[in-house]
Amino acid sequence: MKHIRLAIYDITKGSFQELAGLTKDGMLPRFSKEPGFIEYGVADIGSRKVASVTVWETREQAEKSVTLSSNWVKENISDRVRLISSYVGDLAFLHGTPVLA
Length: 101
Prior knowledge:
With 101 residues, this protein is α+β, with helices and mostly antiparallel strands. It has one domain: Alpha-Beta Plaits. It contains two helices and four strands, in the order βαββαβ. Strands 2-3-1-4 form a four-stranded antiparallel beta sheet, covered by helices on one side. A hairpin with a 2-residue loop joins strand 2 (37-46) and strand 3 (49-56). The longest helix is centred in the C-terminal third of the chain and has 18 residues, at 59-76. The protein is globular and about 35 Å long.
């Protein structure tokens, strides 16, 4: 079983596209260095809200990512987003077809 961390943020400054670029260039490389990291993505969920999703091998790694992401947000984009909610949970399945970039 895999585990996720899901966070929902309000965008307080700038656009989703700007935020996506900052997280791809900053948060993704940071997560990628962590043991158990599998996937990371952000989604525009409307009304100036963003969902951030990470997938981890263990629940402990997913829980650790809460602090990791909180620190990164505070240091890099705290003027652009406000955390609304954060969850860690067990992932029943995630299936798809790889997309070539």
